[in-house]
Amino acid sequence: MDELSGKPHFPPPLGPVKGERTVNPRRRLAPLFPPPKLVPLPTPLPQSLFRKCAFTPTHTLSVHIIPAAYPRAGSPPDRIEIPAFQGGSAKEDRKKWLKETMGRMFWEKREAEKVFPDPKANIRVAEEGIWGTLLRIRRNMSVEDEGIQGPKGITLVVAHPNGFHKEACSFLFEIPTVLILFWQIWEPTFKHLVEMTEDPSSQIRIDEIWSIEAVNHGDAALLNGVHIPKLRQSHSCPVLSSLDCRC
Q1: What band does 100 get if pLDDT is binned at 50, 70 and 90?
Q2: How far apart are CA 245 and CA 68, in angstroms?
Q3: Among 27, 32, 177, 231, which residue's CB has the most CB atoms within a 10 Å radius?
Q4: Model's pTM, two decimal places?
């Protein structure tokens, strides 16, 4: 039975489930290292990074800056520049440019994942680290400090699912006192979960929520600017790097 919704889980399979070949075979992650240097932070910092306010009557929201996972996956050093389309053929010219740009990026992505990429792809591993941001929603008083008898305090760690905008997040795995969400909606869902678990009948309380921003989304994108890599990388390394961070 699910503790949050009170509904039963899906029944377990009756026997072994045959594995299916996917387009994303499981690969070992490269080890993470401290970046030799970091790109400079913009001056002044975006005002959204200074948010520290009441999220609910029981929880407070704050934003934190951390070095993003390093080294990153290889990517061409050039940036996508959108030309100015004018005249009666602007719409067709835009469609042609989009098709050619997407084709080029798909090819670059395939080459970047090869052991020996085509030199024409100009795949490079950046020598500078970039920035990541974390949204933290913290209970004003933890379950342990409050001395509540019965409810268990948990921490949620949330990340983007592939192909979704930053208002979505995902359930990845469960470890003691840490849940990582799959296919939910961002802050309104956090508020709903907090309010639901603060009910006296709830068996759990949310001590903290850590929301991991992708380097090319939201506050992190404002920090990284022109240093955002052209090709995206797996979110696995940023998640591991954020979990290892001491904020």
Answers
A1: very high
A2: 10
A3: 231
A4: 0.72
Residues for the chain: how many in total? Answer: 247
- Provide the token pair at 228: 């955002």
d(CA 165, CA 213): 11
For β-strands 152-158 and 178-185, DSSP reports them as parallel
Cis peptide before 57 (omega within 30 of 0): no
Question: Could you tell me the two tokens for 136?
Answer: 């933290």
**H-type helices in 32-135, by residue range?**
90-112
- Comparing C-alpha atoms, which of 69, 12, 93 is closest to residue 213? 69
Residue 240 CB: number of other CB atoms within 10 A?
13
- Name the least confident of 6-15, 24-33, 234-243: 24-33
Q: Check pLDDT > 90 for residue 17.
A: no
Least confident range from 13-17, 32-36, 126-130, 192-196: namely 13-17
Amino acid 24: pLDDT = 63
What are the domain boundaries of the chain?
A: 47-72+128-244, 90-121
